[in-house]
């Protein structure tokens, strides 16, 4: 029987199904814990912290195991465990079963997303930038579809979350079928790896650039999540409805899809990947400058457009650069580290923002976010510009 080698379309289908499935779980977590399980917002925050901590652990382990074990078995095993967890949550979604099982969901979420990125590092026949741009595109496409229908389904189910978990389990099962049939990686010449792809020590320039980018992305996500967490209270406090705030995120998803198509076209002429990173990080920072002067809904729309332009150019490009700078036998490890640091930024961002708001109010928070974002951009620019000529690409 001819060996099936993984093709890009199956990797992207996996990203879409995973993101689509996840979007039936995380958007309603805080509302469900507070309104249906009658727990405080502080308890909800602690549950989400454990979710994010498990996500970090899943990302690190999946990235490390990808380089040492059979990737397809790791993906299939993760999906089977995730399906079992979803089935359990269908019947056991009270307190304290829900937060325990949600923590497992966080672990498998980090596991699956890191493995998808790691599989992307092994694809043949496509430029790395294109692969990671398309992964980001299909992740957001799944999120747009999921978050659009999760609310109506939740209402139709009379605020029961069981049906949502059934849908996620079905989507994971579909992905499992795709993995078992198509997720074969090309055979690797181990002799070539040992001599050319596995240096005893990663070059110092590579290490500096990789860690600078990873930490920069963590801090940028810490800043970015202010838009998706604390901003809801700020916007509704200005007399703007929650539905209009939600519409901003629908706009975000649609713009990500549109901007990704433009970026794939621009890749024909823009060959320096770092230029995308500089532009994206700067733009994300400047979106908070818009918030400083926003006094009506259309200013928030403009801010969201600028934020989305920034995330679309910077977020998928950083894992692509990390992929270029790591040897074949360490690609999974560094993708895992990157995803883990992203999860850390997402976890502590709302808490850090809330503390600043309580002590100083919203406008100082926006000033701090803009300042931190611009400082991160400067550091990344200085380090990468200094080391670009010294790094080794694999």
Question: What value does the average pLDDT take?
Answer: 86
CATH class of the largest domain: Mainly Alpha
What is the structural class?
mainly alpha
In total, how many domains does the architecture comprise?
A: 2
* CATH topology category name of the largest domain: Growth Hormone, Chain: A
Any idea what the shape is?
globular
Measured as a percent range, the helix fraction is over 70%
Strand content: under 5%
Number of helices, counting only DSSP H or I runs of 4 residues or more: 16
Secondary-structure element order, as H and E?
HHHHHHHHHHHHHHHH
How would you name the CATH homologous superfamily of the largest domain?
Answer: MFS general substrate transporter like domains
CATH architecture of the largest domain: Up-down Bundle
Q: State the end-to-end distance.
A: 32 Å
Rg is 21 Å
Number of strands: 0
Low-confidence stretches: 190-197
Largest sheet: none
Tell me what you see in this structure:
There is one protein chain. By secondary structure, the chain is an all-alpha fold. The protein has two domains: 8-187, Up-down Bundle (Growth Hormone, Chain: A); 195-387, Growth Hormone, Chain: A. It is built from 16 helices and no strands. It has helices at 8-22, 29-36, 41-66, 71-91, 97-120, 128-156, 162-182, 190-197, 204-228, 231-236, 242-266, 273-293, 297-314, 317-324, 331-360, 362-387. Helix 1 (8-22) runs antiparallel to helix 7 (162-182), helix 3 (41-66) packs parallel to helix 5 (97-120) and helix 6 (128-156) packs across helix 14. The chain is globular, with a radius of gyration of 21 Å. The two termini are 32 Å apart. Mean pLDDT is 86; it is low at 190-197.
